[in-house]
């Protein structure tokens, strides 16, 4: 018989605590069951502005993996991501009021929201993915979340090292740099949660060698250089014509272009192309007829578009408008080019098109407008355009010269924009930094500059006498693909220049279709 003083509360509390502990252990305990041929790709950024991760998703799906992309929205993804076995699930955007807070307050709040959102998305799939591919950076909080979820669901983690997150954070604190306490914490976090993975993919050999040496990375380690997909190629005059007819309305709204571009009669001619179907244009009276090859069925042989000799030289610079790209170098170089062009007839007009979105865009484009107005530029115009994914390679393939201002925060990554340009057979002038020579070969596929003076001189050298530019044509010839590309030796497979699809299949496919950890030495 129970004592009158007996109370069941402690026993109930003990039973409830035991049950909660058991539930937590059951929830967090490691599992070794997952769906074969499935992958979750985590991108804490706008998927439409993450070409490498879109290409990853496309390649996984093409190899019959069910592909689940967890990302932020914003820009339209490439059309090939619309597949039956591929699902894009968007994360909720952080509330706008966070942007009004100081970085030291907004950053922790944003991280907390991202932890909750990514965790829920990874657990929303009824079957655990076989692989979780995560883009780094950002490192916080994705590396920790992916590590935890993979531990709980029995998935294998693949880290795609684009750069080092802590080195980007250090740019916010220029006085202290990597000595800043927050940067030190970020570096510890990135090293701790990034050290162990099923596989590590690196954009450069320099990054692989550095991280293997400094952080003793565990897992399969391979270099997967950025490569353009097969849709990146040189654009025909017909393609250039159709692009600029499409862009005609947006270009006509640019006040600085009034009176700068050559006259045209859409749809028969544009500022860069023409056809014999526009006889009223006095600039075209002595233009030879186009070749009869590669003619679009919508045109007759007589009025197929061709490049006009009085067009401006088209220079393209792709940028994310962030602090790791000094756009001021390009503006200084254009100022010097303008001054030089006024003293010689050998230099053509320049239309510089800057593509991309980012936080510093408004600042720099306001500076451009001020320069053009105050200095009364006659030979140079610089405009900013945001292109649809399908139009971007057409613009690159129709341009005459590319300019890259990327200055790596770590000195270990390479600019994807240059890879895209090379895929379109577009020579580049690129700002020099640590491992750039893995991509840009001086005097072979481009030129390397250190400051605005050198960039201005290179543009004058390459574009002098336009449209007949022997030096530029020589660089372009070295980018022309051949059908009998010599294969590199087995010990250096990353040296092969090939489209993304072939490169990915050769480097990544063996990793995901068999367990190679036993062979890792």
Concise overview:
This protein is α/β, with parallel strands linked by helices.
Helical run tally:
17
* CATH third-level topology of the largest domain: Rossmann fold
Strand-residue fraction?
A: 15-25%
Apparent shape: globular
* Count of spatially separate domains: 2
- Sketch the major β-sheet: 7 strands, parallel
Mean pLDDT over the residues: 84
Major sheet: arrangement of strands: 3-2-1-4-5-6-7
Give me the CATH superfamily of the largest domain.
Glycogen Phosphorylase B
**Rg (CA only):** 27 Å
* Distance linking N and C termini: 68 Å
Percent range of helical residues: 25-40%
| CATH architecture annotation of the largest domain | 3-Layer(aba) Sandwich
Alpha-beta classification: alpha/beta
Count of strand segments: 15
CATH class of the largest domain: Alpha Beta
Low-confidence stretches: 282-300, 483-494, 516-521
Explain the overall architecture.
This protein is α/β, with parallel strands linked by helices. A seven-stranded parallel sheet has the order 3-2-1-4-5-6-7, sandwiched between helices. The protein has 17 helices and 15 strands. The longest helix is centred in the first third of the chain and has 22 residues, at 103-124. The model is unreliable at 282-300, 483-494 and 516-521 (pLDDT under 50). It has two domains: 32-225, Glycogen Phosphorylase B (Rossmann fold); 306-477, Glycogen Phosphorylase B (Rossmann fold), CATH 3.40.50.2000. Helix 13 links the parallel strand 13 (401-404) and strand 14 (428-431).
Observed structural traits:
chitobiosyldiphosphodolichol beta-mannosyltransferase activity; 36% helix; 15 strands; transmembrane helix; Rossmann fold; single chain; 6-stranded parallel beta sheet; 17 helices; globular; EC 2.4.1.142; 521 residues; membrane
């Amino acid at each position: 018989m129970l004592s009158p003083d007996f109370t069941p509360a402690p026993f109930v509390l003990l039973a409830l605590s035991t049950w909660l502990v058991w539930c937590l252990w059951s929830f967090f305990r490691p599992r070794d069951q997952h769906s074969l041929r499935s992958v979750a790709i985590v991108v804490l950024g706008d998927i439409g502005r993450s070409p490498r991760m879109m290409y990853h998703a496309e390649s996984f799906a093409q190899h019959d993996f069910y592909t689940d992309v967890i990302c932020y929205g914003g820009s339209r993804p490439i059309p090939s991501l619309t597949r039956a076995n591929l699902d894009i699930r968007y994360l909720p955007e952080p509330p706008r009021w966070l942007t009004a807070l100081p970085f030291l307050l907004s950053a922790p709040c944003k991280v907390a929201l991202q932890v909750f959102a990514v965790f829920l998305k990874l657990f929303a799939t009824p079957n655990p993915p076989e692989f979780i591919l995560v883009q780094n950076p950002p490192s916080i909080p994705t590396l920790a979340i992916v590590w935890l979820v993979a531990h709980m669901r029995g998935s294998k983690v693949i880290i795609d090292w684009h750069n080092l997150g802590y080195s980007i954070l250090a740019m916010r604190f220029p006085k202290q740099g990597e000595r800043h306490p927050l940067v030190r914490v970020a570096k510890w976090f990135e090293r701790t949660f990034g050290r162990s993975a099923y596989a590590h993919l690196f954009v450069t050999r320099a990054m692989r060698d550095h991280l293997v040496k400094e952080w003793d990375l565990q897992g399969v380690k391979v270099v997967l250089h950025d490569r353009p997909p097969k849709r990146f190629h040189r654009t025909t005059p017909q393609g250039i014509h159709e692009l600029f007819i499409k862009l005609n309305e947006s270009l006509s709204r640019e006040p600085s272009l009034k009176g700068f571009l050559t006259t045209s009669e859409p749809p028969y001619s544009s500022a860069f192309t023409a056809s014999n179907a526009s006889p009223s244009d006095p600039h075209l009276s002595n233009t030879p007829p186009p070749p009869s090859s590669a003619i679009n069925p919508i045109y007759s042989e007589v009025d197929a578009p061709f490049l006009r000799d009085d067009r401006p030289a088209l220079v393209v610079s792709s940028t994310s408008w962030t602090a790791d790209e000094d756009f001021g170098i390009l503006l200084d170089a254009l100022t010097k080019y303008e001054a030089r062009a006024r003293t010689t007839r050998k230099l053509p007009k320049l239309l510089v098109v800057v593509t991309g979105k980012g936080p510093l865009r408004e600042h720099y484009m306001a500076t451009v407008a001020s320069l053009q107005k105050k200095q009364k530029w006659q030979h140079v115009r610089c405009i900013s355009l945001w292109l649809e994914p399908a139009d971007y390679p057409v613009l690159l393939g129709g341009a005459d010269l590319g300019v890259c201002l990327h200055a790596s925060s770590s000195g270990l990554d390479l600019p994807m924009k240059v890879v895209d340009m090379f895929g379109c057979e577009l020579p580049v002038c690129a700002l020099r930094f640590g491992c750039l020579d893995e991509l840009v070969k001086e005097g072979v596929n481009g030129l390397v500059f250190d400051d605005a003076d050198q960039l201005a001189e290179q543009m004058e050298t390459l574009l002098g006498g336009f449209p007949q530019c022997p030096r530029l044509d020589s660089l372009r010839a070295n980018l022309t693909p051949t059908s009998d590309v010599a294969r590199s030796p087995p010990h250096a497979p990353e040296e092969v220049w090939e489209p993304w699809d072939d490169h990915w299949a050769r480097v990544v496919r063996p990793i995901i279709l068999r367990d190679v950890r036993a062979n890792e030495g």
